[in-house]
Design brief:
The protein is an all-alpha fold and 306 residues long. Helices cover 67% and strands 0% of the residues.
């Protein structure tokens, strides 16, 4: 959810409610005889309001599971989820009277602030990560990243083979390609044999020891833009000019693989926080119900005027 001008009304409304309830709580805290408590009528009102907001916020998960239900626009649900959840923060503090009393109440308050903090963190990520992903030259569907990475590895293998052994290879794989056991089957077995072209050994060595492991998912300094540039510039100083085009193609493939890895990491950051936020939110709702049952059983509720 990107914060834009459409959130101004929500922010203004929740801000106004927060100010009014803050003034009301300040008056209540000054006038109540034994100090504010969650078991008082006013404290209980804050607690019920906070519980209803949390229950509504958790219902967003159910809303996403049944998108065919016509229960309002999804964007409206998200805006309400964000701003009402933030409004719940002062309600929770007013209900607790800014104190943590008891094990259950303390656990509820701690979980509540973990949920709020993780939600704010996720909202912060959503303001920047999508823009970073759009800035990538090659944006790929997340589920297809592994497939595209394999295709890039196969393409790099083909280009090295074509440049270094245009007539194919039908004998044993040379020592320089010993690291390519998983890719050995991609060499043509039916074409005429022949040695590597003159001057291509450095390229084969670089591919076998540095480039292929990186394209296969092993971490090395090719992930760095500066180091990657140095590697390919260095390669052009040790191979014939006929291989310069192949070097440029391999650098382009390597760059695309780096962008795939970057996209994968950005996607994990963009959605990974939900693995903390969502389950703890549900745990909070369950613990709140338990907290409410205990409160009804053991806390005397005094209604003003009775």
């Amino acid at each position: 959810m990107i914060l834009d001008r459409t959130h101004i009304k929500w922010a203004a409304a929740t801000g106004a409610v927060a100010v009014v309830t803050g003034l009301q709580y300040e008056h209540y805290a000054r006038t109540v005889v034994n100090g504010p408590t969650g078991g008082s009528f006013v404290g209980l009102c804050y607690g019920i309001a906070g519980f209803l907001i949390i229950a509504f916020a958790c219902s967003l998960s159910l809303r996403r599971r049944v998108p065919h239900w016509r229960l309002g626009h999804a964007q409206t649900w998200l805006k309400a989820h964000i701003w009402l959840s933030l409004l719940c923060v002062p309600f929770a503090l007013y209900h607790a009277a800014f104190h943590m009393r008891g094990m259950v109440a303390s656990a509820v308050l701690i979980l509540f602030f973990i949920v709020i903090a993780s939600g704010i963190f996720g909202l912060f990520l959503q303001q920047f990560i999508p823009k970073r992903m759009l800035g990538l030259a090659r944006e790929t569907v997340f589920d297809e990243i592994d497939t595209v990475a394999e295709q890039l590895g196969a393409e790099a293998f083909r280009r090295v083979k074509t440049a270094c052994m245009p007539r194919g290879w039908n004998g044993e794989i040379p020592d320089l390609l010993a690291a390519l056991q998983s890719s050995a089957s991609k060499f043509s077995k039916d074409s005429a044999g022949g040695p590597f072209l003159t001057g291509t050994a450095p390229l084969v060595d670089f591919y076998a020891t540095v480039l292929q492991p990186y394209l296969a998912g092993q971490s090395n300094n090719l992930a760095s833009v500066a180091a990657r540039s140095r590697h390919f510039v260095q390669m052009k100083t040790v191979v014939p000019k006929e291989l310069y085009e192949t070097i440029d193609d391999l650098e382009s493939i390597c760059r695309e693989r780096a962008e795939l890895d970057q996209q994968r990491n950005l996607h994990r950051w963009l959605h990974g926080w939900l693995y903390i936020h969502a389950p703890i939110s549900m745990l909070l709702l369950v613990l709140l119900c338990f907290h409410a049952v205990l409160a009804i059983q053991y806390i005397p509720i005094r209604i003003p005027g009775t």
